Amino acid sequence: MRADPGEEPARPPEPRRHGRARRWTVTALAAVLALVGALVAATALRIVGDLVERGDVQSFYAQPTDALPGAPGSIVKSETLVGVPVDARGWRIMYRSTDLNGDPVVATGVVVTPLGPAPDGGRTVVSWGHPTTGSARACAPSLFVDPYLGIEGMRVLLDRGYTVVATDYTGMGTDGPDSYLIGVTEGHNVLDAVRAAQAIPGAEASSDVVLWGHSQGGQAVLFAAELAQQYAPELDVRAVAAAAPAADLAALMRTHLDDVSGVTIGSYAFSAFAEIYADRGANLSDVLTPEAVAIQPQMNALCLLTHVEELHRIADPVVGRFVVADPTTTEPWATLLAENSAGSSAFAAPLLVLQGLDDELVRPSDTEAYVARARSLRMDVTYRTVSIATHGTIAYLGLPDLVEFLDRVGV
User: Fold this and answer.
1) Average pLDDT of 290-305?
2) Which of 67, 81, 243, 320 has a CB 3.0–4.6 Å from the CB of 395, allowing a cystine?
3) Angle at alpha carbon of residue 42, lines to 37 and 47, rounded to 5°
4) How far apart, in whole angstroms, are the C-alpha atoms of residue 75 and residue 60?
């Protein structure tokens, strides 16, 4: 029967889509569950490996009698790690470095590199400077149950094909002089960590270097960048990135002398300076009250990440009664704080500085002052802020800016 010319022809029935949509939903859900399951399994395997390594971990940090003699960056000893990130392999290392006077010291850390073939010439090395964890030997990040946990942005960096090396800094992990906020020693440790990574054949490390650090580690990588041309001229520092760097120590101290952060950081820093600069007249009793001097051994035995409540319990009674003289205006402390502040000399590598606007430890105004100083030295500086980031979160929340920066500078 023909349709009437004035009527619309009958349309074929609509295909049934519900079954197809349901199949796609089930498939997508299955894929997500498989991915989650794989991540859980990989994490569980990593944790199991980490726990297996705990058995005799302390013996690794005992220095052999021939630990000190040798070229900076040479390996004292290394061991392959079992609990490693997904698609990666890693090593715990003990390597040689030098302190601010050029004297030999030893440092420890970890190296982690992605699986798969390296590019021609080897992998770019990211030398990571960690934020404050404490100053005692036991506070070394490589000693943590998960030694990679504190390497902020590690997954992003591995996925870009980089080898990552993370120093503990001298005096942490193994025997050595205190290096907390001692800029030159930390900078040497960061650069010599790259040399140590190059000495691990499986790390496939090239001489191309990215320096990346947070807070104390920001100070460390800024010093490493300033020192690199003279101290490690064979390394090609391609880019430097610092999140909320402790760039101006005097400004940091002025802000926090009357709060618990100042007592904690000050205890770590003033004890380190008193040890390292004793020959220059750095005497604790010249700037700290008797009550503050008395708590130094207790404060410096505790790690920031694992003993926060205990640190506060000890520090709280001396808040407001910590100093007898302002260290930012009292010599030799004022000069020592200035010497260990970044920005005294320029470096050629492009620099990214990240700052959280909700950071109450390293204040945005202090970071802005450092950026202005770096730009006055005609350095190539990119400054990025994150409105919701605190001191603790800026390195993670700034990762998109870090990736964009590395892409832009061609690393």
Assistant:
1) 96
2) 243
3) 125
4) 13
Across 49-63, 65-79, 122-136, 376-390, least confident range: 49-63
Across the chain, mean pLDDT equals 90
Check pLDDT > 50 for residue 36. Answer: no
d(CA 290, CA 176): 27
Q: What is the length of the chain?
A: 411
55-248+341-409 has CATH 3.40.50.10300 classification = no
Q: Which residue in this structure is represented by tokens 């990593």?
A: 46
Looking at residues 135-146, what average pLDDT do you find?
A: 95
CA dihedral (24, 27, 30, 36) in degrees, to 10, reads: -70
Which range among 33-47, 263-277, 318-332, 377-391 shows the weakest confidence by mean pLDDT? 33-47
The residue type at 49: G
Q: Is the dihedral of CA 210, 216, 222, 224 positive or negative?
A: negative
How many other C-beta atoms can be found within 10 angstroms of the C-beta atom of residue 8? 7
Encode 339-364: b = buried (16+ Cβ within 10 Å), e = exposed. Answer: bbbbbeeebebbbbbbbbeebebbbe
- Please, what sign has the CA dihedral across residues 373, 375, 378, 379? positive
**Whether pLDDT at 162 is above 50:** yes
Q: What are 223-254's pLDDT values in tens digits?
A: 999 999 999 999 999 999 999 999 999 999 99
Whether the per-residue pLDDT at 20 is higher than 50: the answer is no
* Residues contacting residue 102 through CB under 8 Å, at least 6 positions apart: none
The Cα 263–Cα 269 span in angstroms is 10
| Closest listed residue to residue 108, CA positions, set 86, 137, 81, 87 | 137
Per-residue pLDDT, 305: 85
Measured between alpha carbons, how far is 37 from 281 in angstroms, rounded to an integer? 59
* Residue 250, Ramachandran bin (φ over 0: left; ψ between -120 and 50: alpha; else beta): alpha
- Tokens at 380, concatenated: 């190539």
Nearest in space to 347 (alpha carbons), one of 382, 380, 383, 384 = 380
C-alpha span between 145 and 53 (Å, rounded): 9
CB atoms within 10 A of CB 187: 27
Check residue 8 and give its pLDDT. Answer: 44
How many Cβ atoms are within 10 Å of 403's Cβ, its own excluded?
A: 15
Q: Are 341 and 253 in contact (CB under 8 A)?
A: no
The answer to whether 398 and 213 have CB atoms below 8 angstroms apart is no
